[in-house]
Structures are given as C-alpha cells and as structure tokens.
Amino acid sequence: xxTRSLPESAPGKYVPxxxxxxxxxxxxxxxxxxxxxxxxxDLVADAAYQIGRVDGISSTVDFSAVLYTSLIRIxxxxxAQIEGADVAYQDVEAYxxxxxxxxxxxxxxxxxxxxxxxxxxxxxxxxxxxSGSSVTLSLIKELHLMLLEDVRNDGDVVxxxxxxxxxxxxxxxxxxxxxxxxxxxxxxxxxxxASYIQMGGQYHPLIDAAIIHYxxxxxxxxxxxxxxxxxLLIILYLASEGYLExxxxxxxxxxxxxxxxxxxxxxxxSEEGAWDEWLMFFIKGLRTQxxxxxxxxxxxxxxxxxxxxxxxxxxxxxKFARQLLQYPYFTAPDLVEYLxxxxxxxxxxxxxxxxxxxxxxxxxKERGKEYKAVDVFDILQ
Length: 381
What we know:
By secondary structure, the chain is mainly α.
C-alpha cells in the first residue's frame, strides 16, 4: 500500500517529510467509535474470567507477597529481553540477595540494570496508583527517567519527549521502516492520551488498554525506552481503573514470544484501521498470561502443601522447608537473620535441604555461595 495514501478507516495519515513520510495518528478518542465484533466481546469476557480466577487464587495463598514480587521481576526480565537484553530471572533474584538493603551497585552490567530499572519503575508506578494518583504526563516522564537511569545512550532525551525524528526498523525483512510523528506534534498527541486515560476510556478496560498501548507505541514520544514504558502503562492503566485488584497479569512474555505479529498488528491498525485484529491479539495475550499466572499460583500452592506434608516437624530444617516459597533465593548467612538461628544451624539447614534436592548452589564458588529453591524456580521460569 502506498505510504501516502491510506483508506478512510486508517486512524491517521502519512505526512510528507524528507527522506521518508512520517505517520501522524489522530488524537484520542477515536472517531468514529470502533466497531467491536461479537468474537472480540466474547474474548474480552473470557479474558476477564481468567483474570478474575487469578485474583481469586492469589488471595488464598500465604506467599502472595513473594508471588507479587516474583511476577514483577519476571515481567521486568521479559521486557528487557524484548529490547535485546541478555538477562535472566535468576540474575535479578541474585542481585537482590546480594544487595538486601537496596543500595545501588554502579558496577552491574547494562542488561541487568535495564531489568532492575523496569522493576523499580513498575513498583513505583503501582504504588502511585494505589495511593490515589492518576496516570499523568508528569508520571509518564518520571517513569521514563527511572527506566533509562544509567542505561541511556548518548544523544537520548531522558525524562522528556524526543526532539528529533526516529525510524523504527520493521521486523520483516525488506519492509520499510515506520516513522512516528514529528516532535512538533508530540505534546498535543500525548495530552490527548493523558486525557483519555483520566476520563477512563470509552470501552471495556481491556479494550481501552489495547487502544492506549497502540497509541503510545505509534506516537513513540521518547527517543528510547518506548517499548518498556508502553508495556508498563498497560498494567498501570488497568490498576488505575480498579480492574486488577492484584496486578499479577503481565504482558511482556506474550509479546516477546510473538514479536513480529505484535509489530505487524499495530502497523495494520495505522495503515488499514484493522482494530479488531489488534484487539484480539492483545486480549489473547492478557488471557494467556492470566492462565499462566493462575497455573503458576496453583502449582506453587500444591508445592507448599507438599512441603508441609513432607516436613511436618519442629526442627529448624523442617521449619525452613515450609517457608521455602517465601525465600526462594538466599545465602546461608541470610538464614541466621530469617530464622534467628546460629550460623552452624543455618549451614546444617542448607546441607539438609541440598541433600534432599530442594535447593541447589548456583555460583560454583567456594565462598559466598548462593542457593535457589529448585522447584520454585522451575515453576516461576
């Protein structure tokens, strides 16, 4: 399709610009309103049911705080991996074990820092929403600063909208790049986004989350970090609408597995007005992640019950085995603090649980050994 001639159904237009035209979307709300197919309505209902199941099961487990933190960290890792970072969930857990007081380590690798930044930004954003704040442009810019702390590239504008054009390469070989709006149009477009969010949208929250995400990624308001911030905004919007009572649903894993389709579906909205296909893709992603979160929580609950059956005694080893889901990554000295036991007892607990196969050492070092709960990690990863 010629880039300068789009059908009336397209929610924007290409604007002549050298060397390539840029795409300028219409401001929100979308006019005329999107026609939602019956199939999409059914999918929304199914996804809502799956999300409700996660809320239901998560409230019945006594390790919900650990599950909450673990899923945020998994989302942070998946989001960083989409951007090409070489980082694993275990790396994030190891970092927090090595830095329990939250002090900043300026020597860590950029890939790990990207994941940690995402975790910090998402946690902060959720705290702001829970305290009654709304998703404003000021908050969006603040989150951008957090995401790019110590990982920015020279020339990037951080904490404010970009002041230059950007070109987004297509994941499809041979397809031209997508050029988002010029810097001059960003303020109006982003203000319309903020207003749309604060008015609560026009549709079901899952549909509005898809519209908001598409619009943010299409506008591409920052010089870097748009993908990470756009995925984060999905969760913040659903939380701000009270739709996620406990935010255990994170989309990055699904987008990571379907990166090409993810980009193509959004581009088809811009150039063809193919809203329904994008909405179905997006909502299927949230439904899939809700199913995954439910399955993980169910498996962890069964694991907890198994540990309670197999370690019913009053020994320090038995007591810690029953608490293993709360401390899935640790060092032997950590147990001294966690359990208020001697170092000798802490090392005996480690020896006992390692012999039983519940934990394994992960560093390969003679000193400063770190341990992970094998079954817990198998479920979470």
